Amino acid sequence: DCELTTRHFLSVAGEFNVDPLRVALGGDSAGGNLAAAVSQRLATSPDGHLPSPCGLVLIYPVLQMADFNLPSYRQNHVVPLLSRERMVFYFLQYLNGDMSVCQDVLEGRHVPAELKLHYSKWLDPSNLPPELQDGGKQVVTTHDGEVYHIVKDGLEPGISPLLAKDEVLRLTPPTFILTCQYDVLRDDGILFRKRLQDLGVKVTWHHIPDGFHGIMFFIRKSWLSFPAGLRAMEDIVSYIKTL
């Protein structure tokens, strides 16, 4: 639906006095997942009559369901507003609603050994800044083929954009990524940033050291406001103006 809507709007943008060459995609949390996935779909299935998005804005995005034991998941597993278990719950709801495999996915039993090895070059905690590597032991589990069969679609780039092939990610437009320290999704955004940078994509990264998942909802909310969220919003607006 998001892809079809984007393609349609780009095709009729002129009717709304919008320059189709200046349309960017963006979203927060699950919306960031959709924005990244749509960007990849547009890049790999181009319409010769439509321009590509001029930019991508990802606000604490969900980008992979291969590893729920990254440092940010371990460090923030019960931090509001998004816990580790709740993230797996949402992913499974998005896939097929089968909650019976929730614990298996949490423990990493849904990924075959050969895929874990393949993904490790992108998901290894050593790819994170030193200050975000917690030094904890990597979770080692045995693969369960039945669980993999149930959730394997979640490892495809359409749901896990971070796991897309290099040739696809190279087509990513200039990207802004916002991450928060106290967020299970923090490392998703940072690892995506590294992949894009390694492939020569222009990336702007804004990290909120005192931020948490969903902080953008708490802007100008009287006593329930967080200055860091407002600063992040201002940075996003400033970035968009550069596109």
From TrEMBL:
Coiled-coil annotated residue ranges, if any: none
Keywords linked to the UniProt accession: Hydrolase
InterPro entries reported in the protein's UniProt record: AB_hydrolase_3, AB_hydrolase_fold, GDXG_lipolytic_enzyme
Hydrolase is among the record's keywords: yes
Gene3D superfamilies: alpha/beta hydrolase
Domain Alpha/beta hydrolase fold-3: 5-97, 153-216
Pfam families attached to this UniProt entry: Abhydrolase_3 (PF07859)
GO molecular function: hydrolase activity
Official protein name in the record: Arylacetamide deacetylase-like 4
Species per Swiss-Prot/TrEMBL record: Clarias magur
